[in-house]
Amino acid sequence: MPGLSLPLGAVRPGASKSPQATPPASPARSLPGTLLPLTGLRGSSPGVSPSKGEPLPSPPKSPQPTPSFDLKALIPDHLDEDIFARYDFDDKELGVGGFGSVYLAKDRKMADRQVAIKKVMLDGDMRQNFQQEVRIMKELDHPNICRVYESYDHGRHVFFVMEYCAGGDLFDRILRQGGISEAEAAEILRQVAGALKHAHEKGVAHRDLKPENVCFCSEDMQDTRVKVIDWGLGFYFRRSRMNTAVGSGAYAAPEVQRPVGGGAYTSACDLWSLGAMACVMLSGEPPNYGGNAFDEQHDFAPHGPIWEKMSSDARSLVTSLLKWDPSQRPSADQVLNHAWLRTYDEQPSIMSSKTEVLKNLRRFSNNSTFLSLCAASVAQQLSRRGLKELEQVFKELDANGDGILELHEVRAGFQQILGRGSAPLEEIEEMFSRLDIDGSGAIDYTEFLAAGMGNRVNSEVEALWAAFKAFDVHESDGNITEAEIAHVLFEAGAGRVWSAEKCQELAREVVQQFDRSSESVYD
Known about the structure:
38% of the residues lie in helices and 11% in strands. It is an alpha+beta fold. Among the domains are: 174 residues, Transferase(Phosphotransferase) domain 1 (Transferase(Phosphotransferase), domain 1, Orthogonal Bundle); 172 residues, Orthogonal Bundle (Recoverin, domain 1), CATH 1.10.238.10. The strands form five sheets. The protein has a six-stranded mixed sheet with strand order 1-5-6-4-3-2, covered by helices on one side. Strands 7-10 form a two-stranded antiparallel sheet. It has a two-stranded antiparallel sheet with strand order 8-9.
């Protein structure tokens, strides 16, 4: 379905297991060149429910200590606010399923900005599920994971406002092209494995990975950037055991489909699903061997003319992922380092782009605390259409592919791109500390975007409104008050270091700086 880009477990007929709904069956279709019914491929299961050396600006020599902030607090949650006053919903639904409906919508206040909005009706324990999904999506900050912009709680109905990927999902791409080349499959798997590595290191398992939940950012068929969507069945596996049968039949790991004796399973279930996706991309067939496949308890063994034409490295990765024993499957990090994916390494970004981004990082470290928070708010909300080069530079700096930049990676980037001695180690460490707005000890993707965008933060109306809305607690009044700025600062974690009075004092300084009328409100 072109344009589908949001976390909805049952957007298509016959999707994922969930205790809330049993999606209707869909008519069987066949993948071009195969006789495989696409009902099974879709993941349905009957009766199943949910330039070097150039001088650069130097950071301050004696910076004042600054508090760390929880950037997730800059993603607005609206209680009883009218979402229809903010967004124009398209009449045609992008998708309907057991979890709710999905709509394409236009932002009334940010020109040409399209979003995907998921509407869910809350029943029983659905509110707890909704809250966990929002929490997970706020927690995950990675170039290949769908971003949540804000949420609206209307009581019986809740709305997720999310990133919209215009290129449709992977399953539709396979149908349109009649298959996926090894090179393209490797590029897609690299991105998805990177997203999984990030999620797993955060203690989150996806549990419903399938082609329908991988969406392309652009309609351009040459643009292979993808994002993982639908974290509705996501689970914090370090906080509690996973032992519920969930997911989609053609892609769910055997231990997830049939937990034995109530036994728990691990995040390795996502690696099986990644292997099943690879199977479909490369051969047009899932790894099922027949009706009793999962009773046989043996590993997947690819055979036939299609597999014989593939490289041995491709076959090696797929078979390693589809091990019956979860402990024998590679981790997401091992997948990223597999020889097959290394064969198709990403093309490096243009040197001038890298140089400009690193310059922006240095300039950003001179910003005040408030301006840094504004830039982070912009980065949280800005559409990704013009950020392709910035994303590419981030991935090149992120040597281990975990979705965050550590000090040694940033230092290596400066030495490689700008030349050794371009910045003393002490300056890089100080800059790194200032870019780490949330105090996590690493530069997250949003923090990198906030710093790397440079003048774009100040020049785009869309960007300015994105910063505005994070501080306008009462969205409908169209003004930002001193009290609202202080509230957001406190909620974002300034209260851990600053008193409420200090937050209020900073808010007063901000209002005095921006509000020429000397009132405590500006618009």
